[in-house]
TrEMBL record:
Organism: Arabidopsis thaliana (Mouse-ear cress)
Family recorded in the similarity comment: Belongs to the thioesterase PaaI family.
Localisation: Cytoplasm, Cytoskeleton, Spindle; Cytoplasm, Cytosol; Mitochondrion; Nucleus
Alphabetized UniProt keyword annotations: Acetylation, Cytoplasm, Cytoskeleton, Hydrolase, Lipid metabolism, Mitochondrion, Nucleus
Residues covered by region (Disordered): 1-31
Protein name: Acyl-coenzyme A thioesterase 13
Single GO cellular component term: nucleus
Length: 331
């Protein structure tokens, strides 16, 4: 038989029934508002996720020439943006014609505009603010196009050049910046034709014992002729990150083998993540690390590889002269 709770027992427990020994714990779901103050209102907070835009939605004065052009012929600005976002698959004239064709049709041009705005946000991991993609192109189509145009231009993807012009500009910068001699701090490997600025913009996220995580924005320095991440650049990143992971576990090593497989690629201004971790030893003197390269936003696998390094039993020794006297320097 169940036991009846008296009012005195309820008062001693702040109005709640006293749990008797041996009886199952019965929990009741009570709305949060019952314990909240009378003036409390529970709000649904929608947290925006992503990086902020380089300029605001209404900062059209930042590029006055583009603002005037977009006000007069917004279809041209859309065509330029679409060509860059589609990496040349859709040309500027075709995008302009499609946008112009949809403008009289119940003002449905916002469908195309919001679609490419969402595509840009996903590519660069941008926040959906201050309005949603659809609302931005329904209420402020010209301001939205101007903001997207400026975002690409700030990221060295000037829509006015077209996709082929962007690739040509990147190739020209690479040739002009490439040194005619190997710098002293150049990372030498089988891919030594890549100068040390291949690591420009590399950010170290985490370094621990036997593991390292980094992030890199793809620049024109590491592109193929078709605008994708160079295979040799992937090899350099894998060898370098794998070596750092093995060195962090202790000891001096030298590379003996690197093999990797390619599954996808990355393009200019895309961000990639590199993770290298020590996975085991084949013998006392042979360590290995697994390296993975992925796109940061979509987590799509670009390449995986494995680096083997041999432990050096004796340190390097160099004969150097100090004040004319031969000395041995250990590394």
């Amino acid at each position: 038989m169940g036991r009846v709770t008296t009012p005195s027992e309820e008062d001693s427990n702040n109005g709640l029934p006293v749990q008797q020994p041996g009886t199952p714990n019965q929990r009741t779901r009570v709305p949060v508002s019952q314990f909240a103050p009378p003036n409390y209102q529970q709000a649904n907070v929608n947290l925006s996720v992503g990086r902020p835009w380089s300029t605001g939605l209404f900062d059209c004065q930042a590029d006055q020439a583009n603002a005037v052009l977009t006000t007069i012929v917004p279809c041209v600005t859309f065509g330029q943006i679409a060509e860059v976002m589609d990496e040349g698959e859709m040309t500027c004239p075709l995008g302009t014609f499609m946008y112009l064709l949809m403008m009289p049709a119940l003002c449905s041009h916002w469908v195309m505009g919001s679609k490419y705005r969402e595509k840009m946000r996903r590519k660069f991991n941008l926040v959906e603010a201050p309005y949603s993609d659809c609302a931005s192109h329904v209420l402020c189509p010209c301001c939205s196009l101007c903001q997207e145009y400026r975002e690409l231009k700030i990221r060295n993807l000037d829509p006015s050049l077209g996709w082929n012009g962007i690739l040509a500009q990147g190739q020209g910068q690479y040739e002009s910046e490439a040194p005619s001699f190997a710098p002293t701090n150049q990372y030498m490997s089988n891919h030594s034709h890549f100068p040390s600025f291949i690591l420009e913009g590399l950010q170290v996220i985490h370094v621990g014992r036997g593991i390292v995580r980094c992030k890199l924005t793809v620049t024109h320095h590491v592109l193929n002729e078709d605008g994708t991440l160079h295979t040799a650049a992937i090899g350099v990143l894998m060898e370098l990150m794998g070596a750092i992971a093995i060195y962090s576990a202790g000891g001096s090593h030298t590379s003996v083998d690197l093999n990797y497989s390619l599954y996808s690629t990355a393009k200019i201004q895309e961000e990639i993540k590199i993770e290298a971790r020590v996975v085991g030893k084949r013998s006392e003197n042979l360590n290995s690390a697994i390296i993975e390269i992925r796109r940061e936003y979509e987590e799509e696998l670009i390449a995986t590889g494995r680096l083997w390094m041999s432990l050096l039993k004796t340190p390097f020794s160099l004969n150097v002269k100090h004040n004319g006297v031969d000395q041995v320097s250990k590394l």
